[in-house]
Design goal:
Layout lengths: L19 E7 L4 E7 L15 E8 L2 E5 L4 E4 L4 E4 L5 E6 L5 E8 L9
Antiparallel strand pairs: 1-2, 2-8, 3-6, 3-8, 4-5, 4-7
Length: 116
């Protein structure tokens, strides 16, 4: 049957010295990742520059995304954003009072998208 059940809020590592990135699903075209942050941020001067598109949502807590052009976007519970491939960005901050749990979906640059 291949049934694999989990809980997005379960099995949080006790040691959160570093931000935790965990693949939930990976395939040739899509990767779904859970990210657990505890006041983490991307070091100043470091920028993500990913080869694939990213759609990310906050399931718990809060995260602030900063773009190279200075645009800052605050994401709370339920907020989501699409970050195009090679759009330089960083995590400016995450909640220090509670964990921030993100769900990120990565998919190929140029992949057609339909909004339903």
């Amino acid at each position: 049957m291949g049934l694999k059940r989990g809980n997005i809020f379960g099995e949080i590592p006790k040691d959160l010295t570093n931000e935790v990135f965990e693949d939930i699903i990976t395939s040739e075209r899509v990767r779904i990742e859970r990210i657990v942050s505890d006041g983490h941020f991307t070091p100043i001067g470091d920028w993500y520059d990913q080869a694939e598109n990213e759609w990310v949502t906050v399931l718990k807590g809060e995260g602030v995304i900063e773009y190279l052009d200075g645009t800052v976007v605050t994401l709370g519970v339920g907020d989501h954003i699409k970050i195009p491939a090679h759009e330089k960005h960083r995590v400016k901050s995450t909640s220090e009072s509670s964990l921030t749990i993100w769900l990120a979906v990565f998919y190929p640059k140029g992949e057609s998208e339909q909004k339903h």
